[in-house]
Amino acid sequence: MTVALPVRPVPAPGEPLTSYAARLADANGLTRSRVLPAHRHDVDVPAGELDTLAALAGLDPAAAAQLTMDRYPPTVRGQGVTHRGGWRLHFSADWICPRCTPRTGRRELLWQTALSPMCRHCNVLLVPATTAPAGEIVDAPRDLTGLVDELVELAEASITHHSARVRLGRFRRLCALIAQTIDDTWPHRHDSIPPVDEAAARAWGAFPSADPATVAAILVSAAPALHSTASHDQLSREGHARRRGTPTRHPRKYLPQRPPAAPRRPIVAGFNATDSGRLRWFLTQLEHQVARHGIRPEHVPALLPHPDDDGLPNPADWRTRWHSALALHMLLTQTYEGSPSSSRAALAFGAADTDTSRLLDGVRLGRGISHTDAHLLGDAVTVLLNDGLIDYQSRRDILRPITTLPRLPVPASNLPEIERYAPRVLALGWIWTRLTRGPMWTSPFPLVPDRHVRAFNAAIDPETRLALHETGQQLLADTDLLTIPANRATFTGITRRYG
Ligand SMILES: [Zn+2]
After folding, report:
1. Is the pTM of this model over 0.70?
2. Residue ranges per domain, the chain?
């Protein structure tokens, strides 16, 4: 029969066995090995040892069981004696709070897992015990705090609830995939998230990465997937695509299954909760792009580009691309000003605000966005950034008042007349569509059909094409020197001239 020690501290919430044993021994002037074997970790604790410690500390069995990780399912503590394939870190990883651990010895059981790379008491990122106290103390980003609260709750729930186990397992596999493919630009995340140590991230396989800051970045990047199947599938799809062609570092069993191809757009009108979550998510992504690259509504051309385009899009796609451009303009305006404006988008492009579609209605009313459209807009933003942001608004403002063609270095007879439309008008239309990437209905000649400009393009020789291109560039350059804010298009201006 073990007799209780005279001084019996109360276990702190979340306190691990080893840390409690050290406090108990200290309070009674003993070495830790007198109450718990020195080699013991906080998992796989033999029942006899736990009973002895409980008796020494006067704890009831339930309170004693709280001190070890053995009550958690394998999703959290890992499989078998090695504890692989769970949220648990490798035994060699030892995370501490740089603020409270050196002062009070405080530790938490879940600091031994990737579920909590921060001290919720001090609100700072944990550090590996080996780097402290030399390293600087980093505040936990706001996005992380709520997420860790949720993960800790899920871990508790997973003891009794199968659904929580499934969610934690699924989230862990996605984190493992993101760890394999994360870099400075993917997945998009807020600037306040700590930089990623790619080598530490890639080490996430049977065990999570051993670097708390990297784990924090991975968790926050994966966070949208915790609540949205669409976000999960998208991150998983992108992650698998990025992983293709890179050397396989870890067995596939630690990664999520490749999700099915993106779902087709539903036929039903209206938007469900997933669509509305996706719209919010897309706006967050856009905010990151705004913060990172300074993209503005002015950078949107009137026909939204696509990575597969070679020059202007296929005429069959122009309505779709026009609607996508309006939608992106509205969403960018929303990130700057808090609400979308469809009249301002139409005005910016020089058209009337009469178009309607599922995409435009969803964005106008803030109801949601389909998977396909979100992809289309996301891809377009990537193209715009890759091409280097161009102020299409200023190009439109400069070219709109120009209704006479400057003298060209090629004979006037090189310009064909098409369907009785004047060659010089078609030439200006050619310049407009190429330099503003917009259709004729946004140009100073909204009644000239685009097919005539395409026929004109097919009829001119390369020398004339080059001359027109250079003339257009020269018009932009000349006006750039003058910078004419007074020439900015206004709605009244447009109606007066063409209405
Ligand atoms: Zn702390």
Report:
1. no
2. 17-71, 110-254, 273-390, 397-483
State yes or no: cis peptide before 133, omega within 30 of 0.
Answer: yes
What is the rounded CA–CA span in Å between residue 225 and residue 171? 7
Residue 451, CA distances (Å) to 212, 306, 324, 463 in order: 58, 21, 21, 22
Q: Which residues contact 39 (CB under 8 A, 6 or more apart)?
A: none
Structural tokens at position 109: 């059981």
Q: Which residue has the higher pLDDT, 340 or 24?
A: 24
Position 65: which residue type?
A: A
Residue 274 has pLDDT above 90, yes or no: no
Q: How far is the CA of 98 from the centre of ligand 1 (A)?
A: 7
How far apart are alpha carbons 456 and 416 in whole angstroms?
Answer: 7
What's the gap in Å between 474 CA and the centre of ligand 1? 62
Rounded CA separation 349/233 (Å): 35
Query: pLDDT tens digits for 120-149?
Result: 999 999 999 987 566 788 999 988 999 999
145 by Cβ neighbours in 10 Å (0-12 / 13-18 / 19+) ranks as middle
Task: Report how far ligand 1's centroid is from the alpha carbon of 93 (Å).
Answer: 17
CA of residue 119 to ligand 1 center, whole Å: 5
260 has a pLDDT exceeding 90: no
Q: How many angstroms does the Cα of residue 18 sit away from the middle of ligand 1? A: 17
Neighbour tally for 403: CB within 10 Å? 12
Distance 104 CA to ligand 1 centre (A): 9
Rounded distance from Cα 110 to ligand 1 centre (Å): 13
Q: Which helix (H) or strand (E) holds 165?
A: helix 162-181
Distance between Cα 383 and ligand 1 center (Å): 44
Token digits of residue 189 = 């995340």
From residue 96, give the alpha-carbon distance in Å to each of 26, 149, 188, 201: 20, 18, 28, 19
Cα 149 to ligand 1 centroid, rounded to whole Å: 15
Spatial distance between the Cα atoms of 120 and 148, rounded to a whole number of angstroms? 8
Do residues 137 and 67 lie in contact, with contact meaning Cβ atoms separated by under 8 Å?
A: no
Reading the block at residue 472, the tokens are: 């257009």
pLDDT (tens digit per residue) in 24-80: 999 999 999 999 999 999 999 999 999 999 999 999 999 999 999 999 999 999 998
CA of 221 to the centre of ligand 1 (A): 24
Cα 145 to ligand 1 centroid, rounded to whole Å: 13
